[in-house]
Design brief:
Radius of gyration: 23 Å
Low-confidence stretches: 1-19, 217-236, 241-255
Helix content: 40-55%
Number of helices: 9
CATH topology of the largest domain: Rossmann fold
Strand order of the largest sheet: 3-2-4-5-11-10-9-7
Mean pLDDT: 84
CATH superfamily of the largest domain: Class I glutamine amidotransferase (GATase) domain
CATH architecture of the largest domain: 3-Layer(aba) Sandwich
Strand content: 25-35%
Length: 255
């Protein structure tokens, strides 16, 4: 009976699993093929993605999305206000310059940057691991030309977490994370969209950024339709079976 209880509990727990799809808008001054590869990958991973080309989205467009991805471009006051109100912004390479130096979304700055080396390893820190950034990828990971150019971060404040590092003068910050009012910012200073967004681990890192860093603290998952009801039916049947079994044992002991 204990084995039956465990088995049915596991089945019911499985029926409580949830799924969600983020609404994402992406823009920037990135090569169209590279940007298109990012869009196609995210759509193929089950997310709803709007490719806004090189045009900064309006307040109305942002309001319809949970996550914004800025590829080596800039934002505006609408983007800042959207993040402040609860949006999650992810940057790529020089997109971090706008987020940190122009919009001051988190307490850090970009002091330049450039070529570090093709296939530079990126090491996810304890904070990054806690945010889910290392899920399903080796640590460190590298991505050919998509981990080649890096922005240099300086003046990193106490409220900002270093999520990943790269080799340099010691371990140099490569990805920063922090809160801006009710929103979140993942300032990724890596040229991760290069080479048509190359590298399976690189792609998984972006997916982890969306579903872990942005999604882990922000989304209330929706139940898979119909499965919870089936789990309840099984649980009700099990309850009846246990009651009948108990009644039979009591009846036998008094006979």
């Amino acid at each position: 009976m204990k084995k039956m209880l465990v088995s049915v509990f596991c089945i019911c727990a499985g029926f409580n699993q949830s799924v969600w799809a983020a609404d994402i808008i992406i823009w920037g001054n990135q090569d169209a093929a590279d940007q298109g590869a990012v869009v196609n990958f995210l759509q193929g991973s089950g997310h709803n993605v709007t490719d806004n080309g090189s045009t900064t989205p309006s307040a109305g467009q942002l309001a319809a999305n949970d996550i914004a991805i800025l590829l080596r471009g800039s934002g505006n006051a609408d983007v800042s206000n959207w993040v402040r109100g609860g949006g999650c912004l992810i940057t790529e390479w020089t997109g971090a310059d706008w987020a940190l130096n122009s919009a001051n979304l988190i307490d850090a700055s970009v002091s330049g940057g450039g070529l570090v080396g093709t296939d530079t390893p990126v090491t996810i820190t304890a904070d990054g691991i806690a945010a889910g950034l290392a899920d399903s990828i080796p640590n460190p990971y590298s991505a050919g030309v998509a981990s080649e150019f890096f922005r240099d971060f300086t003046g990193i404040g106490a409220g900002v977490s270093i999520m990943a590092t790269r080799p340099g003068d010691g371990d140099e910050a490569a990805v920063l994370g922090g809160a801006f009012s009710s929103g979140l910012v993942l300032a990724n200073g890596i040229d991760w969209a290069d080479g048509q967004f190359s590298g399976d681990d690189n792609r998984q890192f972006l997916l982890n950024s969306i579903e872990g860093f942005c999604g882990g603290a922000r989304f209330v998952p929706q139940p898979v339709p119909g499965l919870s009801a089936i789990g309840l039916i099984l649980l009700a049947g099990l309850t009846g079976l246990i009651a009948a079994f108990g009644f039979k044992r009591r009846h036998q002991s008094t006979a």
